[in-house]
Structure to design on (145 residues):
């Protein structure tokens, strides 16, 4: 499933008509095909990926202090598992800013809300910065249509 906020970002940028579809794809971090689909009113909704046996995981009890990373997590600690997989080279290290990018913090609901608001603001500022940067290179605006 395509993140709703991505679709909204793409739609907004398309409406602004400041950037080419290629630039929008670059800035938002999606494929050109996705931008194209959104611009033509189709929203590419892919069925959710079915997790493999290896990936399916259910919490097994109350959260515990992970002896390895010290996080309060459902055991076995997914963060440590992930780090192990990354270290062994089985999966690529990836910094996915667009998947929400929220850290799984153990916060009071009131603080969690504040954190999410702050995070959303930062994401928006970051996107706007990238748009501004991309907008400086006006050379490919000619290929807009
Ligand atoms: Zn851990």
């Amino acid at each position: 499933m395509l993140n709703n906020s991505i679709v909204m970002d793409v739609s907004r940028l398309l409406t602004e008509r400041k950037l080419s579809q290629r630039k929008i794809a670059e800035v938002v971090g999606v494929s050109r095909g996705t931008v194209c689909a959104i611009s033509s009113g189709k929203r590419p909704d892919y069925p959710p990926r079915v997790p493999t046996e290896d990936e399916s995981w259910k919490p097994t009890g109350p959260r515990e202090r992970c002896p390895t990373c010290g996080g309060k997590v459902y055991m076995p600690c997914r963060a440590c598992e992930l780090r192990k997989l990354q270290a062994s080279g089985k999966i690529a290290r990836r910094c996915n800013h667009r998947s929400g990018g929220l850290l799984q913090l153990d916060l009071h609901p009131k603080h969690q809300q504040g954190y999410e608001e702050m995070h959303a603001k930062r994401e928006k500022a970051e996107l706007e910065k990238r748009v501004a940067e991309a907008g400086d290179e006006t050379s490919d605006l000619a290929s807009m249509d």
Notes: The CA atoms of residues 87 and 93 lie 9 Å apart. Residues 101-135 form one domain. The pocket of zinc ion is lined by residues 66, 68-69, 71, 73, 77, 79-80 (CB under 6 Å). Strands lie at 64-65, 72-73.
